[in-house]
Model the fold of this input.
Amino acid sequence: MFDLLATTLSGDALTEPAGQTETLDWQWRGEGILELSPRQPCEAAVVISAGIHGNETAPVELLNQLVSELLSGQRQLRVRLLVLLGNPPSMRINKRFVDADMNRMFGGRHARYTPNDESRRAQELEQVMALFYRSAAAADTTQRYHYDLHTAIRGSQHVRFGLLPLQARPKSEAMLAWLDAAGLDALVHHRSPGGTFTHFSSDVFQADSCTLELGKALPFGSNDHTQFTGIRRALETLVSGEPLPIREAAAPLVHYRVVQDVIRSQEDFELFVPADALNFTAFSKGFVIAQESGKTYQVEADQEVVLFPNPNVALGLRAGLMLVKM
Ligand SMILES: [Zn+2]
Done:
């Protein structure tokens, strides 16, 4: 049986783009895109993506391991499953992206870019996802999930956390229970729409979607997989329809909501969060977070914590988020 990651990195086409094992059918739908269907009816259609940022390798290795176990028959498949390795060209060079950040392009935003590898790939992933959820619906599969796996650029006060896209409908209890069981330390609730893959799947397909940040980015082969036991176990139970694992984290899950989206809209934008500040570092009321012509961002609540501070983003993009505990 082929290896998903090795085949994707090689750039070679599979000689046979579809096949079967004793219990499932698989289809190679494009570079790094694999659909797995059990032969028996099932209730859930699950998309698991990783490598949307090419240097975030640990989740890619984890997902590859899961696929190997399904293809070898070592693990049972009880959901319709679409596995996506997001950005193969950037994975090959161990870079976050080649031309531009793909996780700002979903929901059709790719059309605003001068066509490049990432904008074409974002469009392809949208189409593949649409086809997958539609064919699953035609087969009476009613629940939709999408988990997009990442690792963060900088260290974090909360090592493992999830980002929930803005949605009008309530967050699904089943998803929240699963995220808790996966051992996440924190969940961040967005307050505005964005170009992320999970915002797209939640908004367009009403999937229960979450972006998972699972530690720090390291090259292929250098990852400490003991850090990822909780999420690995949770993904196994998800695809195999097993009971949720017991949460292993010592402290309870903390919920945050976004109170400020810090956007770099002018050339003279300056960010005053120190370059080495960890994600979830707290700042007190009055602290000036960033400044540019015509706009000052400052902490308005008694305390706000920073997430993903990055002054080097393109104009019009987010240079950081400010959060408060819920
Ligand atoms: Zn990422």
Notes: The chain has seven helices and 16 strands. The chain has a mean pLDDT of 94. The domain at 4-240 is CATH 3.40.630.10 (Aminopeptidase). The pocket of zinc ion is lined by residues 53, 56, 150 (CB under 6 Å).
